[in-house]
Amino acid sequence: MKLAPVMFVGHGSPMFAIEASHARELLDQHQSEFNAVKAIVVVSAHWVTNGYTGVTSDNAPQTIHDFGGFPTELYQLQYPVAGNPSLALEIEQQLEQAGFNVQLQAERGLDHGAWVPLMHLVPKADIPVIQVSINSYSSGEDVYRLGQTLSQLREQGVAIIGSGSITHNLGDIVRDSNQAADYVVRFEQWVREQMTNRDGKALMSAPQLQQDFFRAHPTHEHYLPLLVALGASQINDDFSVLKGGIQHHALSMESYLWH
Q1: What is the CATH number of domain 6-258?
Q2: Which stretches make up the Extradiol ring-cleavage dioxygenase class III enzyme subunit B domain (predicted)?
Q3: How much is the mean pLDDT over the chain?
């Protein structure tokens, strides 16, 4: 049986929705991976909940413009996708059986970590989407296990997407710079090597093992979706690296696909 795909998407800034880039072209080129998918579950760095794991359960989740200071055009964008309340209930039950504290969130929509990459991967917005949050108390091991639990859904045609960034130090962003920071290049390469080797232990221990981790991630929320995606993948999956480059001096746009 062919399993639904898993992706980690480096979603960049909200401008990724409207600006041309090599990273955007790479997502556009992989739209066919989702042709047979029945639903998509997204774990985004931009939904962190305090002490529980949230699961969206609305029939029609709203498009959340959770950012400020960007062009008006960006706030006018909508991603009019359906939800799937019955699947949300199934996810709640699976996660609770695995020991997670879960809350269904009927009023929660999709943040830009979800809808921006989906605009390029599924531009017709014709596949139901559910978003799952990151518990603020989660360790790397916790979110990896979250991915493992969600992986069961792949047999039902449900794709899993972790949306974050290989590097995310906003203090080092230089808008007009085409020169990548040395630590960003090193950290991106290190993560790529561990992902290629499926070294989950190294990736979960990155704060202790990798010298550039805290420069790359002053806070951890953009790193954790990477571990969700790895947990949802399987050793027999074909693995592809989507080298989207480095934007604004410090923002890796690299993504990964298991299919």
Answers
A1: 3.40.830.10
A2: 33-235
A3: 96
Q: Full-prediction pTM beyond 0.85?
A: yes
What residues contact 97, with CB distance under 8 A and at least 6 apart? none
Query: Is residue 155 classed exposed, middle or buried when 0-12, 13-18 and 19+ CB atoms within 10 A define those classes?
Result: exposed
Region 144-151: mean pLDDT is: 99
Residues 143 and 162: their CA atoms lie apart, in Å, by 10
In angstroms, rounded to a whole number, what is the distance separating the alpha carbons of residues 248 and 175?
5
Give the pLDDT confidence of 27-55 residue by residue, as tens digits.
999 999 999 999 999 999 999 999 999 99
The token pair at 257 is: 């696909």
83-117: pLDDT as tens digits: 999 999 999 999 999 999 999 999 999 999 999 99
Name the one residue in this structure whose structure tokens are 């859904």. Answer: 153
Alpha-carbon span 84 to 94, nearest angstrom: 15
> What is the token pair recorded at 83?
């939800």
Q: Show Cβ contacts of residue 38 under 8 Å, excluding neighbours closer than 6 positions.
A: 4, 127, 128, 156, 157, 158
Question: Is residue 204 within 8 Å of 227, Cβ to Cβ?
Answer: yes
